[in-house]
Specification:
By secondary structure, the chain is α/β, with parallel strands linked by helices. It has 8 helices and 8 strands.
């Protein structure tokens, strides 16, 4: 019932939205092209913020972006939703470094650990933006992509990131192989400190607790993280808290349970928007 009400609410206010969705092809790199959907505010200034929205396994980047149109109405933010095609980027959630079981992908040219930085530069130039950083949101497979991008890229121009309902996580455990841990991933101490000090958020639907959900990763190492997405996300957040205490670092991550929402981008976007767009 709550899901229906959320959808009705979004549809009703979207009809009042001045925003629309545009599409372009990003081909300014040596990798296969990426289709990109974006939505700009009515008036763009050099201070307009960029926020990336990363899709899940459905790869419906345009639908994900559509869920944010009404939420971003009146906000000075350029929404960008890249679509990582299954044909070329099947394992995008692991940044094309391994597959879901940890088998290394030999073609390193497909690695996505600089992808958002390159898109940020492209759109900043396209719209003459002067803002020095951007924000991230990902749901499901997109949440997997986002937290691994934060860990494994060299990008530091990120001031906020929200991850919703990830299937499983890359724990900061040097004894466990990627993508379940960070063994042999050469993550510097400075990068770990940056990651832990970031304004990040773990958002979890309180109804995303089905251990038999058809899309739930069921690899043995994923199951060790918890029975379902709600439990896995909670365990990941608690692990970050413990590591922050151990390293005596300022810890700015937030943890939010979203009531009445299961594995749905609509409801999770509404919750994450309060965090990501609150000051825009």
């Amino acid at each position: 019932m709550l899901k229906i009400l959320l959808i009705i609410f979004l549809i009703s206010i979207q009809s009042l939205s001045a925003r629309n969705i545009q599409e372009t092809t990003f081909s300014y790199w040596s990798k296969p092209d990426v289709e990109v959907y974006y939505s700009a505010p009515a008036s763009i200034t050099e201070n307009t913020k960029i926020m990336f929205i990363i899709h899940g396994a459905s790869r419906s980047a345009d639908s994900y972006l559509n869920d944010w149109l009404a939420l971003s109405e009146g906000r000075d933010v350029l929404l960008i939703a890249p679509k990582f095609s299954k044909q070329f980027y099947d394992d995008y959630a692991y940044l094309m470094k391994t597959n879901k079981r940890g088998k290394r992908i030999r073609d390193a040219s497909l690695d996505l650990d600089s992808s958002l930085g390159e898109l940020f530069d492209f759109f900043s130039s396209k719209f003459n933006l002067k803002t020095g950083d951007f924000r991230l949101y990902g749901h499901s497979g997109g949440a997997q992509f986002v937290h691994r991008y934060l860990l494994l890229s060299n990008e530091t121009r990120i001031d906020k990131a929200a991850m919703a309902n990830a299937g499983f996580y890359t724990f900061l455990n040097t004894a466990v192989q990627y993508p379940f841990g960070i063994k042999n991933m050469n993550i510097s101490e400075d990068r770990l400190k940056w990651f832990l000090s970031l304004k990040g958020g773990i958002f979890l639907g309180d109804q995303d607790n089905n251990p038999r959900h058809k899309g739930l990763p069921n690899m043995r190492k994923a199951k060790k993280q918890g029975k379902h997405r709600l439990q896995r996300g909670t365990n990941f957040f608690n692990d970050l808290v413990e590591l922050g205490v151990e390293k005596n670092l300022p810890f700015r991550w937030r943890y939010q349970i979203v009531p009445g929402v299961s594995h749905e981008n609509v409801g999770m976007s509404m919750a994450a928007a309060e965090f990501l767009l609150e000051d825009l």
